[in-house]
Design goal:
The protein is mainly α. The protein is 72% helix and 0% strand. The chain has one domain. Helix 1 packs antiparallel against helix 3 (59-78) and helix 3 crosses helix 4. The model has no long low-confidence stretch (mean pLDDT 93).
């Protein structure tokens, strides 16, 4: 038996379990952000205004963004189209993390914002390792 095949076989189960946990953890956060767009569109408007300079976001646009985001996070948690869904989640979270740069400057006044960094690392790890994230994904024949 080839030694690299042996290492791959040995690592596949713990790696796929670990990636599943990362995917579920990222999904929970993204789902809550998505649901906030439906249940508290005024908060969404404040976030878009304060962090992205978008002052014209209406409740209806918040619902549309939420609906698109909901489709994305459901496809993400299902492991569908991993290159695109994992990439989109990574991009959305990276924009959110980097647009909050002012919150990191007085660090001890905004400690919760620092939770974005390990989540960004998780999103990046999921993207890089997407081909090995196979546990509890929909069994579609697709190429990423």
């Amino acid at each position: 038996m080839n030694s690299s095949a042996s290492i791959t076989d040995t690592l596949q189960k713990p790696l796929s379990r670990s990636l599943l946990m990362l995917r579920l953890g990222v999904f929970v956060v993204m789902l809550m952000w998505t649901l906030d767009k439906f249940f508290n569109p005024a908060h969404t408007s404040k976030v878009f205004s304060g962090f992205y300079g978008i002052d014209w976001l209406s409740h209806n646009i918040s619902y549309v963004i939420g609906a698109v985001e909901l489709l994305l996070v459901l496809a993400f948690v299902a492991g569908l189209w991993r290159r695109w869904t994992y990439g989109a989640v990574l991009l959305i979270h990276a924009i959110s993390t980097f647009s909050s740069y002012k919150m990191y400057l007085p660090p001890f006044n905004n400690l919760l914002f620092f939770a974005a960094w390990p989540m960004l690392a998780a999103c990046l790890a999921l993207y890089w390792l997407r081909d090995w994230d196979t546990l509890f994904t929909l069994p579609l024949k697709h190429k990423d």
